[in-house]
Design a protein that fits this description.
Blueprint (H helix, E strand, L loop, with lengths): L26 H28 L3 H16 L3 E8 L4 E8 L3 H6 L2 E2 L3 H9 L3 E3 L11 H7 L3 E9 L2 E10 L7 H80 L5 H28 L2 H6 L1 H13 L5 E5 L9 H22 L3 E9 L2 E8 L21 H12 L3 E6 L5 E8 L2
Parallel strand pairs: 7-8
Antiparallel strand pairs: 1-2, 1-6, 2-3, 4-5, 5-6, 8-9, 9-11, 10-11
Helix pairs in contact: 1-2, 1-6, 2-6, 6-7, 6-11, 9-10, 10-11
The chain binds adenosine-5'-triphosphate and magnesium ion.
Magnesium ion (MG) binds next to α10.
């Protein structure tokens, strides 16, 4: 046992005060000093709170936390040890005044020594002189480092201890109850910062994984579309073309030979017409699967053609602002941008109820901006990726559109509001 001088979060602060401690006898002086200490404490707390919200680097936040705490306590050594859930041990993450050797070697298991007990019980431990404690771990290190008065508080987040904040001074001293309350508040602030930092990190990891999957889906889709379109083009379409030609030849031969069977000739003509229609349909699917329009027309006429053929049948008027802009894009960029247009135009046809659409291409120094505006019903952009009213997950189209742009080093932004139309912009760098 550590002399029974470990204290619950709100418990009394006991312990001896063998010289060097803060002993105030005159009540007037003590009141004044207590008032000043309280206002200092508030100041330190507010400085730490604003640091937590202003800085995004965890080490920087923890570093300021240690520094401010030492300033207030009048300590010379301090640091923050974080708990590794995997190996259940605490190691120093940031420290001040302590030697590198001490910080490196001072690793303790959960439940062991002063720090291990603070972390396992969630209760602070205050010691007037740690070098006198019989059950302390690494006592040789502590003596070499010159640590005497010592305080260790837990860093908690949502009921779990994530680490401990340690402060020490080279003199024996008596920590007050106020010191402990302040350190607890600081510990809670820092625990909150660590907890949020970890949640943020986990969220980032999940987002990254999700993006990876989206990228893989896009790449796999393109590959598969290419394979199917190739097969349709080389096999199915060729066979249909031959069938159409043969049927046409049959009709001609029947006509030349004076074959007069009315019913047979009507049926043959019908079969020929059906074969022509099927062939056209297969060719449409091929060009949808692989934007051959890009090869035959070039990028700008291809998007013009695609938008017109998708939106004009729905009585949606389209204005193009593509004049004078050349788009020196790589074949990969062209395909991705064309697919992007297909997704956005598809959404307009499917969801917007728009009457007018504007498609504009602009070159902005070394970037190309493709912008599509519609004056339709709009939607709440924050709902992308959530469930819709029919409890169906939607939003994959726009997410893939965004990932597609990221895949080629660009960016895609969506602006919309219910009743106020939609604007989607793709921005890609020109090499
Ligand atoms: N131009 C638009 N006008 C109005 N609403 C739109 C428009 N574009 C998208 N939306 C809304 O945003 C939702 C998400 O679009 P997104 O393209 O991501 O998915 P989807 O079209 O529902 O399904 P998918 O594209 O995966 O087939 C749509 O369901 C629709 O409610
Ligand atoms: Mg869609």
């Amino acid at each position: 046992m550590l002399n029974g001088k470990d204290h619950p979060a709100t418990g009394d602060v006991h312990g001896k005060n063998p010289g060097g401690g803060i002993v105030l006898t005159d009540p007037a002086v003590r009141e004044k000093s207590d008032a000043r200490k309280s206002s200092d404490a508030l100041l330190i707390l507010s400085q730490i709170t604003s640091t937590v919200s202003a800085l995004s680097e965890l080490d920087a936040i923890l570093g300021v936390g240690v520094e401010k705490t030492l300033e207030f306590i009048g300590g010379s050594y301090g640091g923050i040890m974080l708990l590794d859930k995997g190996n259940q041990s605490l190691t120093y993450r940031v420290y001040k005044g302590l030697s590198d050797e001490f910080a490196r070697r001072m690793s303790v298991k959960l439940g062991e020594g002063v720090n291990g007990r603070v972390a396992s019980t969630g209760k602070a431990i205050l010691l007037d002189d740690i070098s006198e404690e019989p059950e302390v771990l690494h006592s040789d290190l502590i003596r070499t480092e010159g640590l005497r008065a010592f305080i260790s508080v837990p860093l908690r987040f949502r009921g779990a201890v994530l680490g401990v904040l340690n402060c020490a001074s080279p003199q024996v001293r008596h920590f007050t109850e106020n010191d402990m309350h302040l350190l607890h508040s600081i510990g809670d602030q820092l625990g909150f910062a660590i907890g949020h930092f970890r949640l943020h990190e986990r969220l980032q990891e999940k987002r990254e994984r999700y993006r990876d999957v989206a990228r893989q889906v896009i790449t796999a889709q393109e590959k598969e579309k290419k394979r199917i379109s190739q097969e349709l083009h080389d096999e199915t379409s060729q066979m249909l073309a031959a069938l159409t030609l043969n049927l046409k030849t049959l009709i001609e031969m029947a006509r030349i030979s004076g074959f007069k069977e009315e019913g047979f000739m009507t049926l043959l003509t019908k079969v020929h017409t059906a074969a022509v229609q099927i062939n056209n349909e297969v060719n449409r699917i091929i060009s949808d699967l692989r934007p051959t329009l890009l090869d035959s027309l070039g990028f700008i006429p291809a998007i013009r053609h695609y938008a017109e053929s998708s939106l004009s049948p729905l009585d949606i008027k389209i204005s193009f602002d593509l004049a004078g802009v050349t788009a020196p894009l790589s074949p990969e960029d062209e395909v991705n941008l064309f697919r992007w247009v297909q997704g956005i135009v598809g959404n307009i046809a499917q969801h917007s109820q728009a009457r007018h659409v504007v498609i504009a291409l602009q070159r902005k120094s070394n970037r190309l901006e493709l912008r599509i505006d519609d004056d339709g019903v709009g939607f709440d952009v924050s709902k992308i990726g959530q469930m819709n009213n029919q409890k169906r997950r939607h939003g994959l189209g726009l997410i893939i559109a965004k990932e597609r742009m990221k895949l080629i080093g660009g960016d895609c932004s969506v602006r919309s509001q219910p009743g106020k139309g939609t604007t989607v912009i793709a921005m890609i760098p020109l090499s």
